[in-house]
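New to this. Explain these tokens.
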Amino acid sequence: MATTGQGVRQVLSEASKAIVNCEVERVPSFHHSHVLVVDDDSGVRETLMLLLTAAGYQTSAARNGFEALQQLKRQTPAVLLCDLEMPRMSGMELLSIVRRRFPEIAVIAMSGSYRANVMPEGVMADAFYSKGQQKPPELFRIVAEVLRTSASQTRSRENRPAPIWGRWIGTDMCGISYVLVNCADCLRSFPVAMDGSEVRAVHTGFCVFCGSEIQYIAEQTAAADQNFPKTILSILTQSQSVCDSGALPQK
């Protein structure tokens, strides 16, 4: 724990020096803007909050996507800084909901799983920050840039398609594959059957709880989520699977 604390203090020290020494045009000029940090790793979450606070931003944090959505109901931040790899609700799922319900929020996706500092395909975000590969001054530059262009980007965010990101959860005994979709209106999750059509295409369906129309795409993965219990998949889908008739359940 001491080593971790020393590491954080060292990073903060370097960040403070970077803020003072960087060129004028690179100094964050949107002090006091609110940044919501979403990451399931407490160390990363706290470090990013300290860095952004040192840079002059107001900060708050959430441990997962569901907690972030609850916070967004109470207060709308200027920027959402969100990790892409999180349990329960992935960052990709969260960002697709945020883009649909809160188009005024500037969004920065972040991950340490991609070597190139390039936005992963299909992510609904305005910018990308590579954790562990880009240094604090680069984070400050990205935050300042999305804030600078946020107002002009709001209209394009509203007009840009924002399908829900469905998590692939498995295939039942009838050979029908399912994705788990989170409704952007009632925030409840339910499985949706996938036919043989292109996974990356935008599909249309309706929430089984509130009836809202939903557009979604399946998470790009070659296999089902191995952590999703087959028994739960069976229970969730038993009312939707129609083995004997040979007909696909309605999407």
